[in-house]
Amino acid sequence: MPNPIAIGIFEFTMMRSGNDLNMNKWAGLFHEYFGSVHAANFSHHEQVSALRVIPVEESVKEGHCTEFFGYERATSLVEDAGKLAIGVCSCRNEKLHTGMKECDAPLDTCSFLGIGADYAIRNNFAREVTKSEMLDNLARSREYNLVFCAVNTRKNPMAICHCCKCCCNFLGGLTRYGYSNSVITSNFISSIHAGKCTGCGKCVKVCPVNALSLVSAHDPDNHKRKTVQLNAEGCLGCGLCPAKCATAAIELMPRTGTVLHPESMFEVTILASLERGTLQNQIFDNPQSVTQEFMRSFVGACLRLSPVKRALMSDTFRSTFLKTAKLTAKLQGKGWMLDI
């Protein structure tokens, strides 16, 4: 898998419990390593990440509900999941053990859904919960102004992270290292109604990626008056700021551009591998075969050519490319991968 450190090795290490675990050492090693992880995966403006943002449902006005898809509603994901489980947030646990946790957000928030819940329960990473307990967990996280980030699939996402500004390593890819696609945005973006803004600054404090700032309102009658300004390129569309605004000066609006949310983990893997120049390792995956070793080298060299990569990742060719990949998987007897 591309980027196996997360989702994977990191989470299922820092979610463990027990008195004989060297959490402090592990946390320190992960903290050192994450800068390299982000650089390896996002330094060439890659579009595919492991997580995508889910907006606060209450922040989406009724007029935009036709563009508010079920896979972007946290409550819909819970309703459709079947088995549910809650575990420790690996990022906050890591920051706790490195002495860098600044927030008072609880640790037991990480939400597992469907087969993700089944896996986490079997391996003692999480406890099974009821639907009402999971909905209570979502409501509590909203009170703590946490950002909901689901596994980046439209179909059956396996988990929802409850991310805070100070601890989340995925949000940190943007805020600490400057890689804008370390978390994929929602299909919405904040819009400012300057005339309604009182300059209270509550939205600025709650923004998880510092996309909002207070600037002069240029009011000739009140030179000290402030208003909020949005950095649109940094906005995740999480919906925290309109939920916090008492004067309805901020509204979530549908984005004009297309946001890449793959359908399944199969698509995530194929597209992420293509972007990172490692797709040949997924296609020719037998390390014992000399023929496949040659094909890995040959195809990898072709796929690393920028014009080829740009063409296959373009809106025009991407869907055709994925259809071909799915057909190939079925012909190889691996159609089960398409349902994950």
In angstroms, what is the radius of gyration? 21 Å
Describe the global form: globular
What is the H/E string?
A: HHHEHEHEHEHEEHEHEEHEHHHHH
**Whole-number tally of structural domains:** 3
What does this structure look like?
- With 340 residues, the chain is α+β, with helices and mostly antiparallel strands.
- It folds into 3 domains: 5-175, no CATH class; 188-254, Alpha-Beta Plaits, CATH 3.30.70; 265-339, no CATH class.
- The chain has helices spanning 5-9, 11-14, 23-42, 74-81, 90-97, 115-122, 131-143, 169-175, 202-206, 240-244, 265-275, 279-283, 290-303, 306-313, 315-331; strands at residues 51-54, 84-88, 108-113, 126-128, 147-151, 159-163, 188-192, 212-216, 226-230, 250-254.
- Strands 1-5-6-3-2-4 form a 6-stranded antiparallel beta sheet. The protein has a two-stranded antiparallel ribbon with strand order 7-10.
- Helix 3 (23-42) packs across helix 5 and helix 4 runs antiparallel to helix 7 (131-143).
- The protein is globular and about 75 Å long.
- The protein starts with a helix and ends in a 9-residue tail after the last helix.
- The model has no long low-confidence stretch (mean pLDDT 89).
